[in-house]
């Protein structure tokens, strides 16, 4: 069998989409998602994440370049590949006049490989898995946003999947729901499902993902392991104090640069080689600065992102 | 396997640049996850039950079934003083001058079926079809469920086919709703018995009943054209309401065009042109000429707009 890179679940080469208005939504994307990873697809709103996902799923035709899903070309192989892929694309979509269970049965009936004999039991299992077992008979119209999101996830879990594509899966969920989804994602990953998770929430990606790619303005600017990406930037010192002016003076004397004062919070870049943080704290207290909180924040994906793009995490224009 | 291959061609038409290697890979994949033989039926069944369980569909059928009852009651009240019904005889084979059948209703309840079909065919029936057909693809797109059906993956050609067959089923159901309600109301309000046809010949009630079924079939067939137009319109937009309004607007506009004498050159190609030819089934012998022209015209609309809908839908970017 001809599989260019057998371990890539998603592979795109020069994937480009230019919409009819001339707007370049995705620009020559080379993305590789290794099998077994939990892959974070990161980028601000409007950066081309959803367009990319839609091309991967065969919903829209690339202007140029190509994508392979589970080693096979899309959208040509859609019929054989998509039954092994579960997807939540740009939020859930439901038939409001059908019950949660009937929504799942309808989606399952559209899958050519689904066994009609096990349809009802698989739908029930999927509903239980996302915690909707009790609301299965309710009309989807009466579902809250979080319940709709769960039902969308249940539809993606109707069959055992090799790949799950989840576009913003925690949208509309309360913190408890978010945590449940993260637990579910980890659980699925443990079972061997590759999870492709798009999000604009950096900490979400950081918490569950092993790999990540960062997209902005239609271009891929970085991809790799989360640890590798975060290692690209150093940590920052953060001091909370009622005397910020004095704190800034003392810290400056000790070589801390890029000092930012935000009300009672002073943060800055540690010099290299980094001094012992405890010594810095002692120096602050000696100078009469009352310290309320003190710490060095580890390098986060957000730092990496800002370092990579040189810009904030705003909506692309 | 032939089904899988048929879809392969569709996808190939969408894709560009095929290599021998990918073709081999796909063949291997097809062998791994082979669709179940009766799967297309499952999609159609799901489509059918989803459509017919909707309140909207049932309400449409209910309104259609109410029309013959209203006509029957009105005629009964009108003629209860012993006088005849005011209008002239229900003749007229030529298209355009609609056979009313109203005057015969008091003599024989079965004419309520024909009167009701003649009354609903110009407006109510095509409107109901316009709602269902216009909403078929656009409605799914509008509520976002279309993308999930396509990634299931339903297959664009097969989804379109399931949608269209369901619309046709609704055409039949709508016509039968009118006919059955007409027959029931007619039997309750008026006497039944031997039927005098338009041509003056008298036939048994059983024969007339067979003809009534035939008439219902012809009326349902007359709706194929508007169904195909509605399906095509539905692939053009992501708003179900817009598609419904366009299709219904089309029904009205085309019928107005069909009455403007200066446009007689194009009128034989307008889908409602031979609609009232169903009355020709009520002659002895039956006049087949217009009936066949009607079937041909509906077939033409099916071919043209069906292909257009397919061409549009299988290449469309689904961005909602």
Explain what this protein looks like in three dimensions.
The complex is a heterodimer of chains A (317) and B (320). Chain A is an alpha/beta fold and 317 residues long. Chain A has two domains: 223 residues, P-loop containing nucleotide triphosphate hydrolases (Rossmann fold), CATH 3.40.50.300; 63 residues, Alpha-Beta Plaits. In chain A, 32% of the residues lie in helices and 26% in strands. Chain A contains eleven helices and 15 strands. In chain A, the strands form three sheets. A six-stranded mixed beta sheet of chain A has the order 7-8-9-4-10-11, sandwiched between helices. In chain A, strands 1, 2, 3, 5 and 6 form a five-stranded antiparallel beta sheet that branches. A four-stranded antiparallel beta sheet of chain A has the order 13-14-12-15, with helices on one face. Chain B is an all-alpha fold and 320 residues long. Chain B is globular, with a radius of gyration of 23 Å. Chain B contains 13 helices and two strands; from the N terminus they run αααααααααββαααα. Chain B has a two-stranded antiparallel ribbon with strand order 1-2. Chain B has two domains: 35 residues; 278 residues, no CATH class. Chains A and B meet through helix 2 and helix 3 of A and helix 1, helix 2, helix 3 and helix 8 of B.
């Amino acid at each position: 069998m001809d599989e260019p890179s057998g371990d890539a679940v998603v592979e795109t080469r020069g994937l480009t989409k230019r919409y009819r208005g001339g707007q370049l939504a995705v620009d020559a994307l080379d993305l590789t998602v290794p099998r077994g990873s939990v892959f974070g697809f990161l980028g601000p709103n409007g950066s081309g994440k959803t367009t990319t996902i839609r091309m991967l799923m065969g919903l829209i035709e690339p202007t140029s370049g190509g994508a392979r899903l589970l080693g096979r070309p899309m959208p040509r192989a859609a019929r054989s590949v998509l039954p092994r892929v579960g997807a939540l694309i740009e939020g859930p979509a439901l038939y409001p006049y059908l019950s949660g269970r009937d929504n799942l049965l309808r989606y399952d009936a559209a899958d050519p490989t689904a066994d009609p004999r096990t349809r009802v039991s698989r739908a029930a299992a999927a509903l239980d898995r996302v915690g909707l077992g009790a609301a299965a008979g309710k009309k989807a119209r009466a579902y809250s946003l979080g319940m709709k999101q769960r039902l969308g996830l249940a539809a993606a879990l109707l069959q055992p999947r090799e790949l799950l594509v989840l576009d913003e899966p925690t949208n509309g969920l309360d913190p408890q729901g978010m945590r449940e989804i993260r637990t579910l994602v980890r659980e699925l990953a443990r079972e061997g499902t590759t999870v492709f998770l798009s999000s604009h929430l950096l900490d979400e990606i950081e918490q569950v993902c092993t790999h990540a790619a960062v997209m902005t303005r239609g271009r891929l600017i970085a991809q790799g392991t989360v640890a590798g990406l975060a290692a690209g930037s150093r940590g920052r010192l953060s001091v909370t104090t009622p005397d910020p002016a004095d704190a800034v003076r003392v810290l400056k004397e000790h070589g801390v640069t890029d000092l930012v004062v935000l009300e009672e919070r002073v943060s800055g870049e540690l010099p290299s080689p980094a001094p012992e943080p405890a010594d810095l704290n002692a120096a602050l207290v000696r100078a009469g600065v009352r310290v309320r909180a003190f710490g060095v924040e580890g390098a986060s994906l957000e730092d990496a992102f800002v370092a990579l793009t040189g810009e904030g995490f705003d909506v692309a224009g | 396997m032939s089904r899988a291959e048929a879809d392969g061609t569709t996808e190939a038409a969408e894709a560009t640049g095929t290599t021998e290697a990918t073709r081999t890979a796909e063949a291997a994949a097809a062998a791994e996850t082979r669709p179940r033989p009766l799967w297309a039926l499952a999609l159609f069944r799901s489509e059918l039950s989803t459509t017919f369980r909707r309140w909207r569909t049932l309400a449409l059928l209910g309104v259609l079934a109410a029309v013959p009852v209203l006509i029957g009651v009105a005629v009964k009240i009108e003629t209860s003083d012993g006088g005849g019904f005011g209008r002239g005889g229900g003749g007229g084979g030529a298209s355009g001058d609609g056979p009313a059948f109203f005057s015969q209703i008091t003599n024989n309840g079965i004419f309520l079926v024909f009167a009701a079909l003649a009354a609903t065919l110009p407006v109510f029936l095509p409107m109901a079809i316009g709602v269902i057909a216009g909403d078929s693809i656009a409605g799914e797109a509008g509520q976002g469920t279309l993308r999930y059906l396509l990634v299931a993956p339903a297959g664009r050609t097969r989804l379109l086919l399931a949608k269209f067959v369901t619309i046709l089923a609704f055409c039949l159901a709508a016509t039968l709703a009118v006919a059955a309600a007409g027959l029931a109301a007619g039997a309750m309000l008026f006497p039944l018995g031997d039927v005098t046809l338009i041509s003056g010949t008298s036939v048994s009630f059983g024969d007339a009943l067979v003809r009534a079924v035939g008439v219902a079939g012809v009326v349902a067939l007359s709706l194929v054209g508007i169904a195909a137009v509605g399906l095509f319109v539905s692939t053009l937009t992501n708003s179900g309401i817009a598609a419904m309004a366009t299709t219904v607007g089309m029904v009205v506009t085309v019928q107005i065009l069909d009455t403007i004498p200066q446009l007689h050159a194009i009128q034989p190609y307008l889908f409602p042109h031979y609609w009232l030819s169903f009355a020709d089934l009520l002659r002895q012998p039956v006049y087949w000429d217009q009936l066949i022209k009607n079937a041909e015209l509906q077939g033409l609309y099916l071919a043209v707009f069906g292909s257009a809908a397919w061409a549009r839908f299988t290449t469309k970017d689904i961005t909602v």
